[in-house]
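Moderator note: this is an archived Q&A kept for reference. The question asked for a predicted structure of one protein chain; the sequence and the answer are reproduced below.
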Amino acid sequence: MKPSENALESRAYRSLKEMFQGGRPLIFVCTSEEGRVRMLLQQASERLFRSRTPVWSWSLTLGLISPDGRAVEKFGPLAVLDFIASCSEPGIFQLKDFHQFMQEDAQIRRRLRDLYEVCVDSGKFLVITSPLRAIPEELSRQMALVELQVPDIEELIAFVRAEAEAISRQGFQVDKSEPSLFAMSRALQGLTLDESRHALRRALAIGGALDGNCLPYLLEEKKLVVNRTGLIQYIAESTQIAHVGGLEYLKTWLQERRKLFVERDSLNADIVPKGVLVMGVSGCGKSLSVKAIASCFGLPLYRIEMSEVYSGRHGNPDAAFVEACRTVESVAPAVVWFDEIEMGLTGDIGEGATNMGRIFAFFLTWMQEKARGLFVAATANRIDLLPAEMIRKGRFDEVFFIDLPTEDERIEVFRIHLEKRGIDPSALQLHRLKKITQGWTGAEIEQCVVSALTQVRLKNKTIAFEDLHQAAVGVIPLSKTMREQVDRIRSWAFDRAVRASPRETR
């Protein structure tokens, strides 16, 4: 092997290389990407052996295909094993979907055990590819298992570079600079090579070129991937951090951690930001803050609703939750939002206490071991319901409490919502609304603005302070209608969580 190649090896190639170097003659690769396995085997053939080892393939429909692409003979499953056993030369033999024959035929299983003895130290390797993990018990000690994960960044960069060359030769405009190739590869992380190829073609068809402007189209392909589960929602709308009123401590914390997250591949895992837990009064900006995190970090946002996990629409809740976590991990880098996390990790829903215990245990382990390109943002209305193990230091980087906005924050929220709707707030004397809006949430301020604008539109006039004041008079804030619950949340968080914004001074 050339000295420079090791640094360029993908995770998938290393997994197979270790099997070949360990002399494992029977290898079971669990994947649906047969073409990708073929490319990896070709790489191994060229790099690992003194002389290039031929790569054969077999399927029930096409029979045995020689290394030069010729159909040799339409062998059945037992006959192809006999051919491999009688072959006098080294070779790598890819058998597609062979798992069903191993499961159904005792003679096949026996022949594979014989082949193990025949192929050891002979330079012959039998590689079974299947989308299902199905190794019979009789072969569990002879057959090595490789579960092929989605391509990592090294494999994607090599793939995108090859695709870019091919597309460029067809006369299309392609930015083949290393920063551009890296950015496109990052956007494709979590997709298979086939899905990546479709994404590049789709982006080319829409944008007319492959460059920095095509990244949003590549990310759209990820939306299709996560939407298959029904458990995960891709959140398309982003919120700039400047559009979040107040919450200065939280904003500062995010902007500081952004630098560490961007440099995560070169940092010790201990200091790479893992996630944040945000609690607070309903309507005070938890969801908006999570959207701002994704915007600040420049990442796509995916939401998992815990109540949906327990809905029963996706089968067993703990299996559904594990699958959802694995799916979002595969599309990293990303921000994953666990909405109302207390609803899934406490005993407050139905009779699924056993499932909750397993989900809770899995979640704690997953938080420690997940991909470093995944940032977790969890929101909770009732953090006091969460187990102590969840909120202790080390699970999340920080636990923030979003309180009712201060006077100055309320005016800032008014200003943001007016400007978003094309209204200049400078002439509206917003400071006069400080007292009347005491105890309001950000959501109530937004609805006040919407109500005032609706009325002035009906009257075909320009909005004035009096319109905002009249709309505000009719609002009864949540802090009054649900005073006991709001006071309990604020009291619990007083000295247990970090405030997202400064305390109000009188």
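Archived answer notes: The two ends are 71 Å apart (CA to CA).
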